Amino acid sequence: MSTTSASPLPHWPYPRWIAHRGAGKLAPENTLAAFRLGAQHGYRMFECDTKLSSDGVPFLMHDATLERTTNGRGTGGDQPWSALAQLDAGGWHSRQHAGEPLPTLENLARFCIANSYFLNIEIKPTPGLEEKTGQVVGELCTRLWKNEAVPPLFSSFRPEALAGARATAPHLPRALLLDTLWDGCLDVARELGCVAIVCNHALWDRALVAQVQGWGLRALSYTVNDEWAAQRLIELGTDGIITDRVDLFSPALQA
Ligand code: G3P
Ligand code: MG
Prior knowledge:
Elements: E1 17-20, H1 32-40, E2 45-52, E3 58-60, H2 81-84, H3 105-115, E4 118-123, H4 130-144, E5 153-156, H5 159-168, E6 174-178, H6 185-191, E7 196-200, H7 206-214, E8 218-222, H8 227-235, E9 240-243
Parallel strand pairs: 1-2, 1-9, 2-4, 4-5, 5-6, 6-7, 7-8, 8-9
Antiparallel strand pairs: 2-3
Bound molecules: SN-glycerol-3-phosphate and magnesium ion.
């Protein structure tokens, strides 16, 4: 990593607490039922995972393949939206949620915009479709959020996906996701015009927080499910915490 003089931190309209995949493990991840449950627990910002159907519709799903979180088979990105829309994305989780459909990103956007919720859209491309996924998500969000004061925050582990989003939505904020501190990662984040780094929470220490914030980047963490870990991140002066434990952490009560 090269050295640089300190840069100002970007304006940050987002709350500290972000509900992972809607409501963590309490509801089927990345379904509208999960986002509604997260909201019932007091969350005002949500993380979701998005990828493209074979006919280019951004929809919500974490895995590349359908088996874990739906009753479908194979690669989600190989199927058209008309087929994906028929799947049960809730029955794997609980009987209560059987029949819950996969949402499009547009479905979730409408829920968030109507309720003034904030959204972190993780661009989770089917392998090989990194740039295209970023481009399509950027185009869609430019249209959907055009009259809103606070834009969604894009994030991705894949720099090509962020480059795609920048190409079609240069004005929408981007964050680089890091599971390890690979060589040159902060340079890449800066080249992509990112406003934040979202790290595996165990990677943060005082030196890394100072370095990242000194580069003018906000410091966020995933996925934080223990009180001691959250307390450590707050004391380090980080800016955001993505959690599954919407039942443990109450945004209204925590710093
Ligand atoms: O966006 C934060 C976090 O969701 C990244 O990891 O695998 O849970 O999508 P993953
Ligand atoms: Mg994610």
